[in-house]
Specification:
Chain lengths: 211, 211
């Protein structure tokens, strides 16, 4: 299982410093939607991270104008971009096609969509489907149960990521469960007093617990 | 009825020049999602438009982290920000509250949501509800019929905007219909050979045809 560390709601300078420090430790570094909307893709292009180890995900959260946003997004160093499952099928087809043409990856964010919608887009075979408990919905997310239920309901979906206040115990349980490809951890790494130690602790937790 | 001219998928410099020229003509100038995501809110703050006549709408398309995005958004000169109806109710409550606290306006984008969802959020009384035909879904949007159907289904919703390839004939028909508060015109103004003449033509069309 991969660890994706999300950086959000900080200045670009702070984000870039932290991203470079996290590069040797985690699998994927996410620059969150706040960084995209506060600073923009053009600015991100001018401040390349030149990551040596981790992949870079930009949380674009595309809703519309799929081809434009993903073409712009992949002009940065991003390896992975995100789009909303709640978008039109046409938008999702556009972002998926751009991603495949460029040999990159796409995460489809399942925020607030129902099973019927997921069924309609489950054929986007190479996409990562992101189970996403809204930050605005507050605490109390049963990540392990949600992943188990999702896998039972949509066994055909191969790539699953999960986000939403995941702590160390949940991370271990998700690793043992063996369904999710990726866990996404935000504040519990980037907001920790010592983010690097927090990231190392998460990495050890998800790797040592695999049976 | 108001005319909102949307500027999208151009450089920031070109957008600012066009916005200033359109300021005396149209009611609302929209800087589209592409400008927010390409350049960012921090950059937009550094390049104030100082509009004299028109209101400024930034098409943020907030999905999550509502309080943060709207607080950041209103640090620009924006009078109106947008959020997606497909967001969680908690996110919509946050963006609505920030908007009301600041005495500003919010447009809730109804892209890809069903009637059940609209019913759940129709109590957000001061919001403008945006009927939005996805650009990615291609041509063929019956704007007048869609507005009529919407008003019949949700008579309690007072403020309606409509977007999606609206041409001059549709603009006239929408003005005569008298339901929508605002029509949003993108490429047919900003992409015209002469955007100022196009904007004037739309303004004349929607005002002269009111009975």
């Amino acid at each position: 299982m991969k660890l994706q560390a999300a950086i959000d709601r900080v200045t670009l300078d702070d984000a870039l410093v932290l991203a470079k420090k996290l590069d040797p430790i985690v699998d994927i570094i996410e620059l969150g939607t706040s960084l995209v909307k506060d600073y923009g893709l053009v600015t991100l292009r001018k401040h390349p991270l030149n990551l040596k180890h981790a992949q870079l995900l930009l949380d674009l959260k595309t809703n519309d104008e799929g081809a434009y946003e993903f073409t712009q997004g992949f002009k940065t160093e991003a390896d992975i971009l995100t789009a909303m499952a709640a978008s039109s099928r046409q938008t999702l087809d556009q972002v998926y096609d751009v991603t495949m043409q460029q040999g990159k990856q796409i995460l489809i964010d399942l925020l607030e969509v129902d099973d019927q919608r997921i069924e309609q887009i489950a054929d986007l075979d190479h996409a990562i489907f992101g189970l996403h408990h809204s930050k605005d919905a507050g605490a109390g997310f049963d990540a392990v149960g949600t992943v188990a239920h999702f896998h039972e309901r949509f066994p055909q979906i191969k790539h699953v990521a999960v986000a939403g206040g995941i702590d160390l115990d949940q991370a271990k349980a998700l690793a043992n469960q063996g369904i999710a490809d990726t866990i996404i951890v935000g504040g519990k790494i980037s907001g920790a007093d010592d983010p690097l130690t927090a990231a190392k602790t998460f990495m050890e937790a998800i790797h040592n617990d695999i049976n």
